[in-house]
């Protein structure tokens, strides 16, 4: 099938026009022609089992003569974000955003200044912040992510994401996307797959930059989501206010639930990196026909980070990849991507 | 702009091939060429203000030289279903489904047979059923729409929708879609709009037939939705169970909330027929640039039904269109579609 792809690639321009002149419906033919040629996109991947699993899956599901062919409307691929598409250590980017929003929240409500957990966050003491309890963390998240209109939140989040920098690389967080995964998104799309983000992070937060950073439009971002309340401003203009009411916790079993809620189709391919992605991969794998399930293992301390605790890697609370998950992957035929071995480059700037 | 559209229409086949040979990116050109020609699709509409509002809006937002041009990714049109796309009288189709599922539920749990509200529904006494209280109705809905796997529900609902018939026309409910609205969906899609259903009905129910009946895929159906619970069958295969837990009540203010949750963009055009659509139309109209808001008024007792109570039409609890809503439409420049005057045909079989 690879040979076919190359043959198609020889003169794409001619094929494009010919396809349209000869065929109905022309749009489908063009899409299919573009598709076959796209494995060239995977330049940041080393040749090896991970890259091979990807290209074999794509060929099998897009070649009309294949018994595993998948109709284009069913070509859905879902991606976790933190740790799968971009760096999540030492802390999830959105949590950093929430911490950095605290001064603005306290400026509006000065009575919070001497109250916990605000006091600890304002102290800037990272060690103390790392020890905050889950209820404390939730209070910070609700205080910084809700209570404002959808538009105000979007403006604040956009301003931050366009300027805030990661402590290690001193670069924008949006520069810290994994180049092999960005290529994979493009490769799948070139093959008629619609790429979705299915993230434990906030749906509204990720939508602010997903189009620009990943080429994924807002309607293809599924994430943790709260309710919104409809109201009118003083001129009678309606707007939605973000409410501190959780509708969907898009982690663990919440991922299949979110996929059913917002997509309504079972993915053909799913990509994750932690125990929070387990159910999404199981759910994907439970469908019939060809399916692709992959997990990114952070085993590259030099170029990025190493954490597991699978395979004896250091344990972590942020993006935990347990040995149990690793064993399930092996048992169920999921592919584990070794950052160290499978990725030629980690970032676009490498 | 109308003239332009006709000029493009003269020889579409030639234009299609020429566009591809001359241009990059060809896909965009083809889409745009198809677009201009599509007002021919609106054959079930009489010439008049409603049809004119539609074609003017589409021309203004798809003509690149227009100050109101809208990028294709922003072309989102949302449609209420019951009473807007298909018949909702004498009762919402999904409620009929729930009533007709009661015998199957009781067969599984015989202890319900002599309990209300099941007893009344089993009696088949339509007058008594019409008088059921809201909590009684909710009990019937939960009992018939939840507690089973997503797949089992889908199978049951599909079997029913493919055979059940409307009491007046003795035809499948899916034959009772309004031909002018089906044409409008096609016309908008031919112009690069993505068409969404935003319904107070159950999201999972509508998804069963939306692709076949409206050409709208599951991921473009937003509706009232419950939670789902992740679990495993005896062979360890995961599945989702529909839970009696309401996540989104996609009526009234729930419509903008559902749009924000599942689409994440403000629609450019919105279509409804009752007070339950008011906030969706307001929210759509609150965006900048060209927007199209339309309400179907059921004023045709002969060919379909007449109900309001707007404009002195008979009052109803099913699809209420109040005079207040009518006044808001006039004040805000929404277009009211008169079934009687604006629709040449109501159904495809007319």
Structural topology:
2 copies of one chain form a homodimer.
Chain A: H1 2-9, H2 12-22, H3 26-36, H4 49-62, E1 76-79, H5 93-108, H6 118-123, H7 126-130, H8 134-145, H9 150-161, H10 179-190, E2 194-202, H11 203-207, H12 210-214, E3 221-232, E4 238-248, H13 254-262, E5 269-272, H14 278-285, E6 292-297, H15 323-332, E7 335-338, H16 339-342
Parallel strand pairs in A: 1-2, 1-5, 2-3, 5-6, 6-7
Antiparallel strand pairs in A: 3-4
In words, what does this structure look like?
The structure is a homodimer of 350-residue chains. Chain A is built from 16 helices and 7 strands. Chain A has helices spanning 2-9, 12-22, 26-36, 49-62, 93-108, 118-123, 126-130, 134-145, 150-161, 179-190, 203-207, 210-214, 254-262, 278-285, 323-332, 339-342, and strands at 76-79, 194-202, 221-232, 238-248, 269-272, 292-297, 335-338. Chain A is an alpha/beta fold and 350 residues long. Chain A is globular. Residues 1-33 of chain A have low confidence and may be disordered. The first copy, chain A, has a 7-stranded mixed sheet with strand order 4-3-2-1-5-6-7, sandwiched between helices. The longest helix of chain A is centred in the N-terminal third of the chain and has 16 residues, at 93-108.
In short:
Chain A is of the alpha/beta class and 350 residues long. Chain A is 42% helix and 14% strand.
- How widely separated are the two ends of chain A? 32 Å
Helix segment tally of chain A? 16
Evaluate the radius of gyration of chain A. 22 Å
In quaternary terms, these chains amount to homodimer
Give helix and strand order of chain A, one letter per element, not per position.
HHHHEHHHHHHEHHEEHEHEHEH
Shape of chain A: globular
Q: For the report, how would you describe the main beta sheet of chain A? A: 7 strands, mixed
Mean pLDDT of chain A: 91
User: Which chains have the largest interface?
Assistant: A-B, 40 and 40 residues
Instruction: State the helicity of chain A in percent bands.
Output: 40-55%
Q: Record the strand order, biggest sheet of chain A.
A: 4-3-2-1-5-6-7
Strands of chain A, count: 7
Strand content of the residues of chain A, in percent? 5-15%
Low-confidence stretches of chain A: 1-33
């Amino acid at each position: 099938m690879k040979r076919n792809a190359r043959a198609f690639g020889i003169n794409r321009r001619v094929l494009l026009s010919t396809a349209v002149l000869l065929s109905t419906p022309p749009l489908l033919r063009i899409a299919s022609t573009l598709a076959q040629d796209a494995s060239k996109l995977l330049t940041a991947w080393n040749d090896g089992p991970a890259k091979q699993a990807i290209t074999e899956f794509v060929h099998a599901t897009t070649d009309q003569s294949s018994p595993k062919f998948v109709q284009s409307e069913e070509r859905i691929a879902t991606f976790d974000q933190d740790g799968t598409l971009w760096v999540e250590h030492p802390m999830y980017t959105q949590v950093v955003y929430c911490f950095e929003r605290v001064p603005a929240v306290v400026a509006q409500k000065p009575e919070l200044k001497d109250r916990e957990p605000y006091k600890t966050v304002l102290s800037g003491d990272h060690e103390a912040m790392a020890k905050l309890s889950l209820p404390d963390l939730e209070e910070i998240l609700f205080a910084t992510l809700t209570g404002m209109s959808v538009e105000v939140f979007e403006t604040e989040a956009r301003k931050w994401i366009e300027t805030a920098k990661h402590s290690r690389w001193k670069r924008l967080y949006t520069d810290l996307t994994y180049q092999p995964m960005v290529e994979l998104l493009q490769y799948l799309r070139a093959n008629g797959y619609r790429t979705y983000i299915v993230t434990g992070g906030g749906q509204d937060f990720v939508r602010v930059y997903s189009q620009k950073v990943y080429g994924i439009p807002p309607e293809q971002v599924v994430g943790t989501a709260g309710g919104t309340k409809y109201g009118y401003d003083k001129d009678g203009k309606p707007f939605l206010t973000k409410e501190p009411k959780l509708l969907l916790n898009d982690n663990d079993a919440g991922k299949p639930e979110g996929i059913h809620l917002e997509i309504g189709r079972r993915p053909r391919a799913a990509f994750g990196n932690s125990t929070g992605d387990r159910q999404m991969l199981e759910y994907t794998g439970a469908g019939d026909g060809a399916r692709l399930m992959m997990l990114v293992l952070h085993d590259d301390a030099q170029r990025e980070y190493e954490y597991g605790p699978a395979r004896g890697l250091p344990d972590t609370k942020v993006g935990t990849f347990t040995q149990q998950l690793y064993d399930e992957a092996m048992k169920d035929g999921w592919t584990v991507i070794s950052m160290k071995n499978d990725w030629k480059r980690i970032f676009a700037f490498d």
